[in-house]
Amino acid sequence: MIHQRQLLRGKLILSLLPAVMVLSLSTQLLAAELKPAPQEFRQEVARHWPLPAGAAANGFWLTDVSPEGSLRVADGRRWYEFREAKLEPLPPPPGVAEGAGWILLGGVARVLPMPLSAIRQIQWQGDAAWVATTNGVLFLSATGEVNAELPGFDVRQVAIGANNLVVAATARGLWRRTESGEWTRVRAMDEVSRGWTGGDVRGVAIDNRGHWWVATPAGVIHRQGRQWSFYTGNEGLPYADFTCVAATGSEIWFGTKRGAVRFDGQNWAYREGARWLPGNEVRSIGIGADGAVWFATDKGLGRNERRNMTLAEKAAHYEDEVERYIKRTPFGYLSEVGLGAPGDRTKIIYSDSDNDGLWTAMYGAGECFAYGATKRPEFKKRAQQAFEALRFLQKVTQGGPHSPPKGYVARTIRPMDWPDPNAGRIERDREAQQHDRLWKAYEPRWPKSADGKWYWKSDTSSDELDGHFFFYPAYYDLVAETEAEKERVREVVRDLADHLLAHDFTLVDHDGKPTRWGVFGPRYLNHDPYWMVERGLNSLSILSYLAVAEHITGDAKYGRAARDLIAQHGYGANVMHPKMQLGVGSGNQSDDEMAFMCFYNLLRYSKAKDWLERWRFAFYAYWALEQPEMNPFFNFAYAAFGRGQTFADAFGPTPVEPWSGWLEDSMDTLRGFPLDRANWAHHNSHRLDLQPLRRQQVVDFTSDDRTRRASRVNGKVLPVEERHFNHWNTDPWRLDYGGDGRQLASGTVFLLPYYMGLYHGFIAKPR
Hints:
The protein is an alpha+beta fold. Among the domains are: 52-298, YVTN repeat-like/Quinoprotein amine dehydrogenase (Methylamine Dehydrogenase, Chain H, 7 Propeller); 351-512, no CATH class; 520-626, no CATH class. 29% of the residues lie in helices and 26% in strands. The protein has a 4-stranded antiparallel β-sheet with strand order 1-26-25-24. It has a 4-stranded antiparallel β-sheet with strand order 2-3-4-5, with no helix packed on it. A hairpin with a 2-residue loop joins β21 and β22. It is elongated, with a radius of gyration of 30 Å.
C-alpha cells in the first residue's frame, strides 16, 4: 500500500495517482534486460474494386471461393469472376434468364430453383456444396443430386466440420444436422441462463481447430468442445449487427452492416470506412487460398491481406512518399498536401500551414536519429535539408521592409506567385480578438522577404520554437560532423537564444511586440493571470532552450540565465506542473507534443543537476497521463530517461520505470499505421466496446461531445488503424474523423518514433 502522505508528494499526480501501479524495486533491475522489438511483422493492406459498369446499384451480395481457388461475386443478377485483378461478368447458362439462381459446381453450371438474389452462401465440402438460401438449405452432390432441407427457414450460413458435422445459422435459431439427416436446435446459455441462439442467428463458421463461431445480435459465441464463451462490448467486441462469419487459419472475420470485425483469439479489430472497405455493408466474406479475405459489399469488392514486411521497409515507403509528394519548395518544408481526387496522387495541391517549421523539425529530428543509429548517407542528406529549411526561416525575416530583431524565426514561407495571404487577414484577426483578448491584429501578417521572392509568416508561436530547439541538438550531436557544419548550427542557435535573452524571454515580432504565444518571461508567466495556464509548459520550454543553447554554443551565459530563472523566479518548480489537466484525456494535445520534446532535451542537456531527478519525476507523472494513448513517440521519449530510475524524497525511493506494456503498445501503433496516409473518414461512436472519459471541466462537454470522446473498455485509445490524424497533436480520444481521401499526410508520425526507437535500442536494427 502507498502511504497517504506519499500520494501528496509535490501534488504532481493529482487524480492520476490512484491508478498508478507502483512497481517493486526489483522490477527496476530488469530494465537493462530490455529485448529490442523485432523488425519483422505482418502489414495489413486493403484494396478495392468498385462495382463494374452495369452491376446492380445495390452492390454485391455473395462471394464464392471455389475449391480450385477461383473467386466469384454476385450482385443479385449476375456472377462476376475475378481475373487478372479485374471483375469479368459470367454469362448465365444457355436458356437461363438473367437473375436466375445458378452456381458452378466442378466447372459445370448448376441451375437452382430460386433467384440468384436468394442465395446467401456457398459452402464447399470437397466436390459437393451446401447452399444457404432464403428458403432452406440445398445440398448439391458431386454427381448432380440436389437435396433440399430446412424448407421455410431463412438460412444465413452453413458451417462444415469434421465427421460430417453441419451447422446452420437461421432467422429461427442455430441448428445442427444429425447423422440421420435430421436438424435439431442448438441452445447456448450464458452464465446467467440467457439463451443466445433461440432466435435470430446471423452467421456461423467452424475454424480449423473445430471451434464454432456464432454471430448473433447479442454478440459472438465461441464453442470449444462442450464449453461456450460469450463476447459482447464488455469483452472488446466492437460491433454486433452481423451479416456473416468466416474463419481463416488464425482469425475469425465477421461481416456487419457497418464494417467488418476481426478476432485473433486475443484482440478485436474494426475495419470501417473507405480506408478498409469499398462499402460499409459487408454481405459476404470469402477466404482465398493465400489467406486473403474478400468482402462483397454494397459498393464493390474488397480484399484484405497481410504482407511480410520490416519496419525499415515501412519507413522507406513513407520516406518515398515524403520525397515524391509532401516536401514543398526547394527547401523541403513538410506539412500535408491536397490530392486532386480521393486517394489519387497524380495531382498534388501544395499549401502552407501555421506550423511548417514544427513539422519540418520533427521530420528532421527523425532523420537525425536515423543517421545516429545507422550512419546511412541518405539520412544525413535529409537531415541536412531539414536544417537548411529551418535555418532559412530565421534568415528570411531579415533585411526586408518589415524586419523583426535578429534571430527571429518565421512560421513558414510561401512563394510570391501565390495569392497574397494578407488579403482580408486584418479583418479575421480583429474577429479573433473578440474571443482571445491577447490575439494580435496587425499588418502585415505576411511580410515580404528582402529579395522579393517570398512571403514569410509572422506571429511565430512556441510550437515552432519547441520544434526548432528539439531538432538542433539532435542535428548538432548526430549529424554535423565537421567544424564548419557545427558552427553553422551554433550560429542559428546563438542568434535565436540571444533574441530571447535580449527581449525579456519573449519572441519579438516586426511590430516590436511579443508574438501571441512566444512568451517565456517571469513577468508574464508568474505575474500575469492570463498566462497562468501556460506557466508550467512555457517554463519548461525556456529552460530546455537555454540548456540546448549552452550545450551547442558552449557559452555559459545561457546556463546562468537558466539558473537565474530557477533560483529567482521559481522556474524549476514551475516545470513540476507542466500540464493543466484534470485527468486522462484532458488538456491540449499540442501542448503534450511540445512538452515531450522539451522534457527530452531538458533532461538530456541541462546542467541543473539538483533538479534533474525532480524533473524526471514530473516527466513520469506527465507520461503516466499519456500512457493510455499508445503513442510511441511519447513512450520512447520518456523511456530514454525513465527506465531503471527511481525518485527519492523524504518517504524513500519510488520507481519511475515506464509501466509494463509501454514497448508493446508502441510497437502495436508502429505496426498498425496504414501505409496509405490519405485522410479517409473513420466513424466509431456507435461501437459497443467504448467507455466515456470522465467529465473534465477543461473540455466543453455537451452530451454530443461525450459520445465523440471515449476509450476502449481496456482504457486505451482506439488503435491507429481505426482513426486518422496528420500529427501527434490530434486528440486521440476522438471517435469520429472526417475526411474524403483528398488530403495526404506525411509519415513523420511513424518515422520520428521509429528512428528514435532505433537510436535508443528499443527496436532491433535492420539487417
